[in-house]
Amino acid sequence: MSQVKKFWRLLPLLAVMTLMLTGCGDPTLSALVPKGPVASEQLFLMKLSLFIMIFVVIVVFAIYVYVLVRFRKRKGDESIPKQVEGSHVLEIIWTVIPILLLLVLAVPTVSYTFKHSENYNKNKDAIHVKVTAHQFWWQFEYPDLGIATAQQLVIPKDKIIAFDVVSADVSHAFWVPSLGGKVDTNPGIRNTLYLQADEIATFQGRCTELCGASHALMNFTVAAKSDADFNAWVAKMKAPSVVPANAQKGEELFKENCMSCHAVNAAGPGVAPNLKGFADRDTLAGILEHTPENIASWIHNPQELKPGNKMPAFGKEAGGKLDDAQIKEIVTYLQTLK
Ligand code: CUA
């Protein structure tokens, strides 16, 4: 079959693939839809390098095609074109142009790289957040506010958020595509970065370093709020929880079974996600819809939903000690953690 025919046969397949790729654009998970100054500047660098590359490709191919056509052997013409090997002028031209292009690329790249890794920890106006990556969840501590949360980072919009990122176990990487990044989280090494959100919205975050069985499920969210809503959230996190009568049985079961790992107070980081404010989060375990059914199946057998995580199964059928009614009581209690 001729190459041309093969191409036409492949065309519908390429069209379908293009159509499928258009489904990949989640505006809350795209470095191409920046929602903060850091992400905007990083997008500018991406575009700059892309345009320079396109320019180089076009110029090189134009010269290539011109030379192919202009100097091809013609019937009756046995002459050899003028040889340019060792031409100083040409060598200087094709050395200087790339140097200039690299300078155009290097100056903004180096300056933004230093700017984006600037340590804002001493800045009084910045909100400080310590990020600790765990297999396979994220802990967010606000040392100046005395609160800690997990899986959903809450930030005020238009404020610089100064991050210290570390890992509790293996190497992970912290990335919020809409806001900028990313940075590795390594055990024993503290990395810093800052981000800022221009918009009130919830953005997606991802772990971008292969870190184990559930690497692909190690998601988190970033809720950017107005100043007033952020302050209200902080106040709510600090306020003591009130457990309604119908959730007291669940609270007791929670204390017996879950509290050795999970904190439910404002400042409690721990070996498992702090569940204070749990009921207000958008997702469960970073990946599931926040519904009572999903919470129950998570407690029943977390390994089925996020393989390799550290939480044991509590459901009787999965080898745990809680029956469905007891799990339901705990779910009722967890839903009061607003
Ligand atoms: Cu954590 Cu990948």
Automatic annotation (TrEMBL):
One of its GO terms (molecular function) is cytochrome-c oxidase activity. Binds a copper A center. Keywords: Copper, Electron transport, Heme, Iron, Membrane, Metal-binding, Respiratory chain, Translocase, Transmembrane, Transmembrane helix, Transport. Signal peptide: none annotated. InterPro entries: CcO_II, CcO_II-like_C, Copper_CuA, Cupredoxin, Cyt_c-like_dom, Cyt_c_oxidase_su2, Cyt_c_oxidase_su2_TM_dom, Cyt_c_oxidase_su2_TM_sf. The keyword Transport applies. Its main location: membrane. One of its GO terms (cellular component) is plasma membrane. The chain crosses the membrane at residues 49-69, 89-114. It comes from the Bacteria. It is a multi-pass membrane protein. It catalyses: 4 Fe(II)-[cytochrome c] + O2 + 8 H(+)(in) = 4 Fe(III)-[cytochrome c] + 2 H2O + 4 H(+)(out). Pfam families: COX2, COX2_TM, Cytochrom_C. It is found in: Cell membrane; Membrane. Its cofactor is Cu cation. Its EC number is 7.1.1.9. Residues 245-338 form the Cytochrome c domain. Residues 124-236 form the Cytochrome oxidase subunit II copper A binding domain. GO terms for biological process: ATP synthesis coupled electron transport. The keyword Cell wall biogenesis/degradation does not apply. Residues 20-120 form the Cytochrome oxidase subunit II transmembrane region profile domain. Belongs to the cytochrome c oxidase subunit 2 family. Subunits I and II form the functional core of the enzyme complex. Electrons originating in cytochrome c are transferred via heme a and Cu(A) to the binuclear center formed by heme a3 and Cu(B). This is Cytochrome c oxidase subunit 2.
